[in-house]
C-alpha cells in the first residue's frame, strides 16, 4: 500500500512534466498546425540556461528563473526566425522545418557546450525526502507536483478569463475568422509560443532539479513521450494533452514499479501497445479537439 | 499571409501618408473595386470586375450560386488573395493588406456560415472581437450596447455560442462585426439557412444599421429580399458583372432573371 502511494506520487510527478510538455505542443498545434519537433530543444535550452547561470555564480533559484526565461526566449526566437515565414504551409512542411531547427540546435549544444551531460549541483535539501505517516516522500517529486498544479491552474485562468486566452481558444477553432475580427495573427501566435516555451522551461526546471545534469538530448525523450500524450489525448485538444500526459506518465511509472524483471525490457512496448489499444477504440483520442475544419 | 503590406495608416507616425487626390478623399464611395481578378489555381472565379460602394448606402451583390460573389467579398476582406486589379477602402489602397489590417481600418465582416466561435460563450465571442479594435473600457461599453440592441444575446451571454439557434448565431455574428464600430460592413449571405421570420429580423437589423450611417455591402442569393433594402445592386454571373443599377432599374429588367439562369 505504501509503495503504491509512493509510486502514485512518482506517477503524478512524471505525468505532470509530460502534461506540461504536451500542453505546449498542443497549444501551438491547435493554432498554426505545427507539430513542433524542436519543442524538446526548447526544454534543453532552458536546462543549459540553468547550467550556465550556475557556472556564472548565480544562486540556484535565480538560475532556475534564468532557465525559464531562456526557454521562453528560445520559443519566441524559433517562431520569429523559422516558423513565421512558413505560416500557412502544410503540416508536413512545418514538421520538417521543426526537424531542421531541432538538428541545428542540437549541433550548437554538442559543439558549443558538450556532447556529454554537464552536472548541475543544487542544494542537497532539494534531493532529500521527508516522512508522512511512515511514508518516505521525495522533496523533488512533491515540488514537481505542486509546480505542475500551479502552472496548470494559471494557464487555465489565462485561457478562461483573459482576452488573449480567449483569442487563443478562438484561434484554435477558426484562425481566419479571428483575423476577420481585426486580431493581429502574429500576436496570438507569439503568445502561444511564449506559453509553450514557458511550460517547456518549467519542465526543464523540474527535470534538471530532479536529475542534476543537462545533456543535448535532455528534452528529446520527455518530448517524445509528450507527443504520444498529445496523440492519446486528441491532437490539438488542450484538456486531452494534460490527460494524455498523466496517463502516459502513470503507465510508465507503474510498469517500471510493478512489472516482473523478465518483462522490464518491454516496458516501452507495453506502454505504447496500451496507447495503440486506446486509439483503436477512440481514433480521435480521449478528448478530441473541436475545430470547425475550414479552408 | 504576413502583415507585410499594411495600409499606410499604421505608419502615419513615421511618415505622412501619400495624400490621395483630394477629390477621391472627399468622394462618396467607401469601397472602390477596379478590374478585380480572383483565381483559385487555374480557376478564374472573378474576372476583372469593377464597382464601388456608396457611403451610407446598402449595395447588394447578387447572382447565382458560384457567380463569384463570395470570392469578391473575401478578396475585398483580404482573406483570399487578389490575383490582379485594385481594391481601395476609404480612399486607401488595400489590395495586398492582411484581413486584420483591413478590419482595423474600419471594416466589419460577417462571413458566410456565421462562423461564431462555438466553444466560446456569447460574451467571450464579443470580448475577442473587441480586443484588437478598441481600448478595454470602450470595448466593454460596446459589449453592453450590443446586448441591449440584441437582448437575446444578453440573456444568453454565458451560453456557448455553438448552442445558439441559427438566427441567434447570426445576431452574434453581426454584433461581433460591430464591435469595432465599422464604417463599412461586409455581409455574406446573412439569410442563409434561417427561418423566414428570422430572415425578416436580420434584414430589419440591416436597414437599421444603414440608417445609423454604416455603409453595407450585402452578398445575397435571395435577390428579391436584397432588392427590398438595397439602394444599389450589382449583378454577377460567371465571375463577371452582368449589370448594375438601382433596384427600380433592375426590377423590370430581364437581366436579373437571366443572370440567375445562366449559372
Can you describe this structure?
The complex is a heterodimer of chains A (295) and B (263). Chain A has helices at residues 2-32, 39-55, 60-83, 91-113, 139-161, 163-173, 175-179, 185-211, 220-233, 238-258, 267-281; strands at 118-119, 129-132, 135-138, 213-214. Chain A has 295 residues and is mostly helical. Chain A has one domain (12-114, 140-281): Orthogonal Bundle (ABC transporter involved in vitamin B12 uptake, BtuC). In chain A, strands 1-4 form a two-stranded antiparallel sheet. In chain A, strands 2-3 form a two-stranded antiparallel sheet. In chain A, a hairpin with a 2-residue loop joins β2 and β3 (135-138). In chain A, α2 packs antiparallel against α3 (60-83). Chain A is globular. By secondary structure, chain B is of the alpha/beta class. Chain B has one domain: Rossmann fold (3-Layer(aba) Sandwich), CATH 3.40.50.300. Helix content of chain B is 37%, strand content 25%. In chain B, a hairpin with a 2-residue loop joins β9 and β10 (240-245). In chain B, α4 (122-131) packs across α5 (136-149) and α4 packs parallel to α7. Residues 1-26 of chain B have low confidence and may be disordered. Chain A: Its main location: membrane. Chain A: The chain crosses the membrane at residues 12-38, 50-77, 89-109, 129-159, 188-207, 227-251. Chain A: It is a multi-pass membrane protein.
Short overview:
The complex is a heterodimer of chains A (295) and B (263). With 295 residues, chain A is mainly alpha-helical.
Please give a handful of descriptors for the protein shown.
heterodimer; A: 295 residues; mainly alpha; ABC transporter involved in vitamin B12 uptake, BtuC; two-stranded antiparallel ribbon; 11 helices; 4 strands; globular; B: Rossmann fold; 4-stranded antiparallel beta sheet; 10 strands; disordered N terminus; membrane (chain A); transport (chain A); cell inner membrane (chain A); L-phenylalanine transmembrane transporter activity (chain A)
Amino acid at each position: 500500500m505504501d509503495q503504491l502511494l509512493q509510486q502514485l506520487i512518482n506517477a503524478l510527478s512524471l505525468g505532470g512534466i509530460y502534461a506540461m510538455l504536451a500542453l505546449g505542443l498542443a497549444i501551438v498545434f491547435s493554432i498554426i498546425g505545427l507539430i513542433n519537433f524542436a519543442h524538446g530543444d526548447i526544454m534543453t535550452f532552458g536546462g543549459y540556461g540553468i547550467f550556465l547561470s550556475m557556472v556564472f555564480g548565480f544562486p540556484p533559484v535565480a538560475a532556475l528563473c534564468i532557465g525559464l526565461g531562456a526557454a521562453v526566449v528560445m520559443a519566441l526566437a524559433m517562431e520569429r526566425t523559422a516558423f513565421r515565414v512558413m505560416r500557412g504551409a502544410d503540416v508536413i512542411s512545418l514538421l520538417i522545418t521543426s526537424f531542421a531547427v531541432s538538428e541545428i540546435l542540437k549541433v550548437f549544444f554538442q559543439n558549443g557546450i558538450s556532447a556529454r551531460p554537464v552536472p548541475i549541483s543544487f542544494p542537497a535539501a532539494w534531493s532529500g525526502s521527508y516522512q508522512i505517516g511512515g511514508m518516505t516522500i521525495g522533496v523533488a517529486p512533491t515540488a514537481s507536483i505542486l509546480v505542475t498544479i500551479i502552472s496548470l491552474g494559471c494557464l487555465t485562468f489565462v485561457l478562461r478569463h483573459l482576452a488573449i486566452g480567449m483569442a487563443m481558444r478562438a484561434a484554435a477553432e477558426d484562425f481566419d475568422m479571428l483575423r476577420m475580427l481585426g486580431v493581429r495573427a502574429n500576436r496570438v501566435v507569439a503568445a502561444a509560443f511564449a506559453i509553450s516555451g514557458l511550460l517547456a522551461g518549467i519542465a526543464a526546471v523540474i527535470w534538471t532539479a530532479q536529475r542534476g545534469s543537462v545533456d543535448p538530448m535532455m528534452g528529446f525523450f520527455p518530448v517524445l513521450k509528450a507527443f504520444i500524450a498529445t496523440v492519446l489525448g486528441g491532437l490539438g485538444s488542450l484538456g486531452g494533452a494534460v490527460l494524455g500526459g498523466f496517463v502516459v506518465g502513470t503507465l510508465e511509472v507503474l510498469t517500471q514499479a510493478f512489472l516482473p524483471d523478465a518483462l522490464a525490457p518491454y516496458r516501452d512496448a507495453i506502454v505504447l501497445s496500451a496507447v495503440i489499444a486506446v486509439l483503436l477504440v477512440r481514433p480521435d483520442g480521449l478528448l478530441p479537439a473541436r475545430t470547425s475544419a475550414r479552408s | 499571409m504576413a502583415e507585410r503590406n499594411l495600409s499606410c495608416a499604421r505608419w502615419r507616425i513615421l511618415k505622412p501618408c501619400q495624400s490621395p487626390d483630394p477629390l477621391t478623399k472627399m468622394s462618396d464611395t467607401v469601397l472602390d473595386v477596379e478590374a478585380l481578378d480572383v483565381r483559385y489555381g487555374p480557376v478564374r472565379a472573378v474576372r476583372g470586375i469593377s464597382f464601388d460602394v456608396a457611403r451610407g448606402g446598402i449595395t447588394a451583390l447578387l447572382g447565382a450560386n458560384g457567380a463569384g460573389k463570395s470570392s469578391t467579398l473575401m478578396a475585398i476582406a483580404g482573406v483570399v488573395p487578389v490575383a490582379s486589379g485594385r481594391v481601395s477602402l476609404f480612399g486607401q489602397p488595400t489590395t495586398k493588406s492582411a484581413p486584420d489590417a483591413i478590419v482595423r481600418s474600419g471594416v466589419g465582416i460577417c462571413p458566410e456560415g456565421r462562423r461564431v466561435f462555438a466553444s466560446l460563450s456569447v460574451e467571450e465571442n464579443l470580448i475577442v472581437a473587441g480586443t484588437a479594435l478598441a481600448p478595454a473600457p470602450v470595448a466593454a461599453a460596446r459589449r453592453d450596447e450590443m446586448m441591449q440592441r440584441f437582448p437575446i444575446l444578453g440573456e444568453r451571454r454565458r451560453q456557448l455560442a455553438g448552442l445558439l439557434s441559427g438566427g441567434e448565431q447570426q445576431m452574434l455574428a453581426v454584433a461581433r462585426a460591430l464591435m469595432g464600430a465599422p464604417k463599412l460592413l461586409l455581409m455574406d449571405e446573412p439569410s442563409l439557412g434561417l427561418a423566414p421570420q428570422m430572415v425578416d429580423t436580420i434584414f430589419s437589423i440591416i436597414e437599421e444599421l444603414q440608417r445609423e450611417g454604416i455603409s453595407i455591402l450585402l452578398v445575397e442569393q435571395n435577390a428579391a429580399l436584397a432588392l427590398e433594402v438595397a439602394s444599389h445592386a450589382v449583378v454577377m454571373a460567371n465571375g463577371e458583372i452582368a449589370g448594375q443599377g438601382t433596384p427600380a432599374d433592375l426590377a423590370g429588367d430581364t437581366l436579373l432573371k437571366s443572370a440567375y439562369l445562366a449559372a
